[in-house]
Structure formats: C-alpha cells, structure tokens
Amino acid sequence: MIKDFFKKAFHLYYDGFKSMTVGKTLWAIIIIKLFILFFVLKLFFFPDLLKKNFKTDEERSNHVIEQLTKNK
Amino acid sequence: MIESLDLSLVDWSRAQFALTAMYHWIFVPLTLGLAFIIAFMETIYVKTGNEEWKRITKFWMTLFGINFAIGIATGIILEFEFGTNWSNYSWFVGDIFGAPLAIEGIMAFFMESTFIAVMFFGWNKVSKKFHLLSTWLVAIGANLSALWILVANAWMQYPAGMHFNPDTARNEMLNFWEVLFSPVAVNKFLHTISQGFLIASVFVIGISAWYLLKKRHLLLAKRSIIIASVFGLLSSLFVAFTGDGSAVQVAQKQPMKLAALEGLYKGSEGAGLVVIGMPTPNKVYNDNKDPYLFSIEIPKMLSILGYHDKDAFVPGITDIIEGGYTYKNKNGDETIALPTAKKIEKGKLAIQALADYKTAKDSGNKEMMEYHKKILDENFEFFGYGYLKDPTKIIPNIPLVFYSFRVMVALGFLFILFFALVLYLILKNKLEGKRWLLRASIFMIPLAYLASQAGWIVAEVGRQPWVIQDILPTYAAVSSIGTGAVQVTFFLFFAIFTTLLIAELKIMFKQIKNGPKEGGN
Q1: Are residues B101 and B221 in the same domain?
Q2: Mind listing the pLDDT tens digit for each residue in B243-268?
Q3: Are residues B140 and B184 in the same domain?
Q4: Residue B162 belongs to some domain of the structure
Q5: Nearest to residue A16, comparing CAs of B117, B111, B60, B35?
Q6: Yes or no, beta carbons of A50 and B496 under 8 Å apart
Q7: Single pTM value for the model
Q8: Which of A4, A6, A21, A29 to mutate to test the interface with B (most CBs of B within 10 A)?
C-alpha cells in the first residue's frame, strides 16, 4: 500500500514534469534565480554579520548592547 | 556609533529594503487572489461537470503558475537584508520575528509546495474532488503564509505581547496569542489579503476584456468576468471596511502617521478630512504657514474615520511634538500626552540604564543590576526616542504619505464602482458593447498595483523613523557596514528584479495571446 502510494506520487511528478510546456521555462528561471540568490548574493554579498563575526550568543548580545548604548 | 553613522547608509539601506519589498509585492497579491478565483472556477466545474469550466480553470491556473514561479523566493532577499543590513534590529526583535517567519516557512513548504504539484500535475491522476481540495488548500495555504509575515510587520507597528531582556538585548515573546491577534495584526492581514483579491479580480477582468475586444475566447472571457467581478466587488468593499479599521488602529497607536497622511499640523475636535489638497512645501511644524496651498475638506470626517466619533479630538503634528492633549493609552485609560522632548529624555534614561545594567552585570553587582533594570523597565516604552536628535525627527515624509494615501483611497473607491458596473453590464449582457469600459479594464490592472503599492508607502513611510514603533528607529537598527556595499546590492537587486519582471510579463503576454489550450468558444 505504502509502496503503491510512493509509486503514484513519483509518477505524478515524473509525468507532470515530462508533459510541461511553459513550465520548463519557468523551472529554468526558478533554478537560475535560486542559484543567484543562494550561491551569489547570499555567499558574497549578504553574510549574517552577527553569526559571521561572533561565536556565541553572549558575544552577539554584548555587541548589540554596545552598538545600542554607545554615544546615545 | 549611532550618532556618527553616515545617514546615507540608513537611506540606502532603507531604499534597498523598500525596493526589494515593493518588487516582491508585485508578485504576491496576484498569487493570493488568483488562487481563490481558480478555486471558485474549479468548484463550479466539479459541481456542474461542464468541461468549459475546466478549460477556464486551467487557463487561469497557467497564469497563476507563471506568477508563482517568477515570484517565488523573491521575499527571501528580505531575510538576507535583515542579517546583513539590519543586524542590530534582527537581534533586538529576537524570537518575535523568528517564530512567525519559521511558521510561514513550514506552512509554505508543506501546504503550498505539496498541493501545488497536485493542482498542476494531478488533473488525470487524482479524483476530481481531491484535485479540488488541493486547489483550495493552495489558496488557503498561500494566504496563511502571508498571515505570518504580516503578523511580524504588525508587531513592528504595534509591539505587543513581549518584554525586553537586558541580558540578551532581545525582545522575548510573552504571549504568542497577543502577538497573533493584536488588533493591528488582524486588521493588517485582512486588509492586505483582500487587496490581493482585488488585484487578482482586476487582472482577470482586464485580460478577459482584452479577449472581448479581440472577439476571442468569448465564453471564457464572460464567465471569468462574472466570477472576478463578484469576487472583486466583495473584496473591494471589504478593503474599504478593513481600511476603516486600519484608520482606527492608526489613530490610536500611530497618531503621527495619521497626522502625516492628513498633513494635519494643528489638531482639533471634529477634524475634517482633506479630499483633495496640496501640502505647503517646506512647512515647519510650528511656523504660521497655512498647511495647504489649497484644499477641499469634508468636515468632521477625520474624527469619524479615526475615532468613529464626529467630535473626537485628532492630534496634529504640533500637538504630538508639544504634548499636553488627552488620549487613551494601551490600557484604555485617559492620559495626558507627553511632549516628545520629554520622551527623548526618558529614552536616553532607558538607554543609559541598559548600559549601566551591563556594567553592573560585568562587575557582578546584583543590587545595581536590579536598580538599573527598574529604570530600564519604567522607561522602555520610550527607548527609541533616546536616539532622536530633536523632536522633529518623529515627523515622516509628509508629501509622500499624504499623496500616497489619496491615491490609495481614490483608487479603492474607483474599484468599487468599476466592479459594480462591470458586474451589472455582464449580467445584462451589455458589456461587449461598451468598448470604452473594456479598454479601461485593461488599464485598471496597473492602477490596482499602484493602489496596493501606495498603501504600503502609507504604512511604512508613515511610521518613520521607527523600525519598531517608539522602541527602535532606523538609524539604531542598521548595521555598521559600508554604504558602497549597500549601493552595489541595491543596483544588483534592481537588475535582478527588473529581469524577473520582464520575464514574467513576456511569458504572461505570450500565454494570454495564445489563450486556453483547447480553445474557449
């Protein structure tokens, strides 16, 4: 029964993708877009500054408190 | 650090965030509304068994798919920006932002991603009823996904259900339900999704009108217009209703936003609403210049809109800066408004108390920690004011908010008339003869997007300088990074989003030109 379900689910996606027309172009756009977002922008332009610069949450808290309270 | 921050960094970071959010919002509302229109159409197909309804459903589903595919993940960039450009803010908001966004991610993945595959690929693979259920779940899932990000946004406009922990420098959620069901969140969600329904309805009518003008796919066009005009009329009335709710919330929780969108400097009882007007450029809040170069006003309307009381006092910009008027606070008690200068003093006390608390903690002095925590707690509601150089910094960009509000409201009323007229004519079978209205219907599509974007400008520019109302201004929330880096990514995003938009329009136009695969009528 479970095997049958997965077989059906597989065919749903397999046949669906195979019979796509405009969908193929859309998938190409989605893949290029995700590549640019995660492998170009995220990696080279958008580091999580607090995660990158500090090892622990305590260090991050201290940094933010320092930023918020300096020269107020 | 904060005082020495280059203001252009804040401006560029804001511009970048605005650009990303506005482009993202081009894709989202159509998804929210079109999903329901498709669900209505498919329901009729399943109920009647009429194959023409299936073709109609599949045609709009293709356009839905194009918009969904191009728009998907454009919102993730906003999260990138939180971590890089707004790291102080990201840390400061803590789990209040994290929890709703995590729920959104899970919901979006499980509901939309799973059932959208059945919706597109399952036509001959699953039963009619299961397919219909999947379509409905996609519609409901898409709208529930929007709920969580809107809840997070509403919390920034009206921080509720949390407390600030000075040990972690984070706001912690005390009551999830208070965050989820805050009156601002409920209203914002309903107002936002219903304008998505409105946009989708205009979209369907506009494209169908084009078919009628070209005398192609007439049955598809007429049936689609009936569905969309009914849905659009109900949605536009609901947008007006929830817009009224928004005005009440803004009047109570963000009085400066209300004063700014009205260009109201001197408050009064029974305040009027300016229908058409032009704010005086370079007016200073306490000078004697007339606030408008010209204006046409509906007497007492602003009091009615903001407080549902024709004689209610609506504070103006000067009143909010100078204080002294009576208003109802969070607990519903009558309170005398503090002058902004006094709030700045209290804000500075709160910030100093946080610094002193940290020093006491580092030296292990528990008594002093408690002492400073008490001062911080007593003044925390004014924390953000401590970063303001002078009271005028709480005034947002008045012309931008003033005009955006009028564009949004005027178009909102125009859409009610438009849907009512289109519905009347299609039911009387007279729409095809009204070629001017068919042409106008096509031009309504960009106007619907304009109204929606104008609404966001009112909501977001109107609350400046706050990232979190009264608690954190933009210049304290921004990360200390190079302005050049933000400028580079601004133009990168501009290029990427514009390319995506052009791709969407090209593919969409091609599909519309081709029409439904098996022909309508």
Answers
A1: yes
A2: 999 999 999 999 999 999 999 999 99
A3: yes
A4: yes
A5: B117
A6: no
A7: 0.91
A8: A29
